[in-house]
Design brief:
Layout: H1 8-16, E1 22-26, H2 38-55, E2 63-67, H3 73-90, H4 101-112, H5 115-125, H6 133-140, H7 143-168, H8 173-180, H9 184-196, E3 200-203, E4 208-211
Parallel strand pairs: 1-2
Antiparallel strand pairs: 3-4
């Protein structure tokens, strides 16, 4: 299977199911077996997913991608052994990061709901200008992309988490702020935006927000 078919959803689902690490192997860059250069898509998704992991408090080293040819059996063994050792050092998912199991599952579910949005963002705003591993690494590690990613993803993640909470039961601004550790003014801003979009409604009698 082409590594380009490794969707963000697949990686996030693996972590959501409790996998401690995810390794992606692809054919050598610029030597795509399918002439689609799908391995560059895999590289882009890996960079984006690592940034997502940082946003929710997971160690990005739990995700790794490596490109090699079908003749690189020894290299594959070396790389997978090294990755396995690294994951053993990190320990169970969330433990070394100090994230409660239920909290992590909640965050990953909120992120998974943003996958369609992130695909659109990647196509429109997060495309490296040159197809080379060095160029992709430089692009995604740049301060400009870090700033842009934080702007594009941060608020969306907060709103996604809020919607999950409201899916369980109506909550006030202070309740949401306390549960997610957000500034009450930011929660009010997110709720106003979501209300205009028809996603939530304000229950005057109970003084709380609920799913519309």
């Amino acid at each position: 299977m082409c590594s380009g078919r490794i969707d963000l959803e697949f990686i996030l689902r693996a972590f959501s199911n409790g996998q401690d690490g995810v390794f992606i192997g692809g054919c050598l860059l610029n030597e795509c077996n399918y002439t689609t250069q799908g391995n560059y898509d895999a590289l882009s998704n890996t960079h984006i997913c690592k940034k997502i992991m940082e946003q929710i408090g997971l160690n990005p080293e739990r995700l790794r991608i490596k490109f090699m040819s079908s003749a690189d059996g020894n290299l594959l063994a070396e790389v997978t052994n090294d990755f396995t050792q690294k994951i053993k050092e990190l320990g169970p998912l969330g433990k070394s990061e100090g994230i409660d199991k239920n909290e992590l599952k909640f965050k990953l579910e909120a992120v998974r709901k943003l996958v369609p949005y992130m695909k659109l963002v990647e196509r429109e705003r997060l495309r490296a200008p040159v197809k080379s591993e060095e160029a992709y690494n430089e692009f995604f590690q740049s301060s400009e992309v870090n700033r842009l990613f934080s702007e594009l993803f941060g608020d969306k993640l907060a709103i996604s988490q809020i919607m999950l909470l409201l899916g369980e039961n109506p909550l006030s601004t202070s309740d949401i702020s306390e549960k997610l550790g957000l500034n009450p003014s930011d929660v009010s801003k997110f709720m106003s935006s979501s209300s205009r979009q028809g996603l939530v409604r304000y229950d005057e009698s109970r003084k709380c927000y609920a799913i519309a």
